[in-house]
Amino acid sequence: MKKRAIVVSLTILGLLTGCVAATGSVDQSIREARSTLKDYALASCLIAIDPQSTLARDLAGVKRAHSFMGKGKYRIVQDQHTFETLSDPYVEAANFMIQQSERLVGVMKNGQRSKSYGCFQAYHSQAFEDQILQQDEFIFTEIE
User: What is the residue range of the signal peptide feature (predicted)?
Assistant: First the structure.
């Protein structure tokens, strides 16, 4: 009888631990999705500074890797009849960051302006973080 109680207790403990581990992995996958969306937007912002540069061509690869067609973790929602895009977290995050970065351009001591400074400031802003969090409903889940 005592052995059975121990087995049942260990089984319950195992199930509870498994649930905690599963919850932790979901949280980790959400963090990873958010991180890749933020990186996609940062690459977009840096490309917008000088789209014809060698760096921009290299960053285009980063965008492709983090996009819906790459290893992106967000779905794009379209109208079933018209195929009009209803929600594209990638475009929304990139546009938001580019708009924010234009307001946050850095002025150096020598008077030169740094557009990339604005991209990094926007990347670390609470407003951008809030924008990324609003896209959580579009994250692919394991069940889908």
Answer: 1-21
pLDDT at 51: 96
Predicted local confidence at residue 28, as pLDDT:
87
Nearest CA among 114, 122, 139 for reference residue 34: 139
CA dihedral 45, 50, 51, 57 (to 10 degrees): -90
- pLDDT tens per residue across span 5-43: 333 333 333 333 343 444 455 588 889 999 999 999 999
Local structure of 71: helix, strand or coil: coil
Give alpha helix (H) positions in 50-125: 54-66, 89-103, 115-123
Q: How crowded is residue 66: how many other Cβ atoms within 10 Å of its Cβ?
A: 24
What mean pLDDT is predicted for residues 108-121?
90
Q: Which of 77, 103, 73, 104 is nearest to 88 (CA)?
A: 77
CATH topology of domain 30-138: Four Helix Bundle (Hemerythrin (Met), subunit A) (1.20.120)
Q: How far apart are CA 28 and CA 43, in angstroms?
A: 22
